[in-house]
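An example makes the point: we print one protein in full, the chain in one-letter code, the fold tokenised, without further comment:
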Amino acid sequence: MAKRQRTESAARNSFIRACSFIGILISAVLYVVSGILSWVGGSLGSIASWLNLIASIALLIGVAFPAWDYVKYKKKVWRIVYWVALAVYVFGVVFGVISIYR
């Protein structure tokens, strides 16, 4: 029986799906852990905020690749909207973490 070969597109889709799953999984675990740590309070609150940052970044990685695959062959306006939305998300994550330490 002949071996089934994977195309480049199938390999890329597999990678994107894996990133999406890992991003959602890590985000879910870290959001729960950070919620528990912030509920306990004290110095654990800063650990919770760092875990929240890591969860947001993992979610970004898990969602950014499939979103780009959706947008990359659309009109130029949609690609611009994608990059603006991505930049707003990244700035929101960064400034959200910075404002915690003020």
User: Anything to note?
Assistant: The radius of gyration is 18 Å.
